[in-house]
Design goal:
By secondary structure, this protein is an all-beta fold. It is about 0% helix and about 50% strand.
C-alpha cells in the first residue's frame, strides 16, 4: 500500500518509542499522547508541542508527514524555499515528509501550544536536525 504524502505540520516530545529518538530541540517541549501502528509500515504519533515565547523548535525534518493544529498562542513557521507563515490559535499547518522547517513562538502571548500528528515510517526517529 502506497501512502500518499499530503501533510500537515507541527511540534514534539522526549518519552518512549518514536518520541524518545526525536530531535533534540532546545526550544520545544513535547508531550506524547499516543502511538498507533497504522497504516501498514508506518506509525501515527500524536502529541502536544509547546514552544516558549521568543524560542524556536530548531531546523529539522520528519521521515513522514506532519499535521498540526495551533491550540494557543502564535508562531512563525519557516519552511525552506517558502515565505514565512504567521499562524495563530485555530490555524492548521501541514509539512510534507523530509521538508526542512522551523517554528518560532511569536506575538504577545506566552508562547505557543499545538496538537501534532506525525505519520512516519516504522522504526525511524520522529525527527532529525537539519543544517
Amino acid at each position: 500500500m502506497k501512502l500518499s504524502i499530503t501533510c500537515v505540520s507541527a511540534i514534539f516530545v522526549a518519552a518512549t518509542g518514536p518520541m524518545a529518538s526525536s530531535t533534540a530541540q532546545e526550544g520545544i517541549k513535547r508531550t506524547p499522547l499516543g502511538t498507533m501502528d497504522f497504516p501498514p509500515g508506518y506509525q501515527t504519533v500524536k502529541g502536544i508541542a509547546e514552544i516558549p515565547k521568543d524560542a524556536c523548535s530548531g531546523r529539522h525534518t520528519h521521515p513522514g508527514i506532519e499535521t498540526t493544529y495551533i491550540l494557543e498562542g502564535e508562531l512563525t513557521l519557516k519552511i525552506d524555499g517558502q515565505p514565512d507563515q504567521h499562524l495563530k490559535a485555530g490555524d492548521p499547518l501541514q509539512i510534507p515528509a523530509g521538508t526542512v522547517h522551523d517554528a518560532c513562538a511569536t506575538g504577545s502571548s506566552g508562547g505557543s501550544k499545538a496538537l501534532t500528528v506525525h505519520v512516519i515510517e516504522k522504526g525511524k526517529p520522529l525527527g532529525s536536525p537539519a543544517p
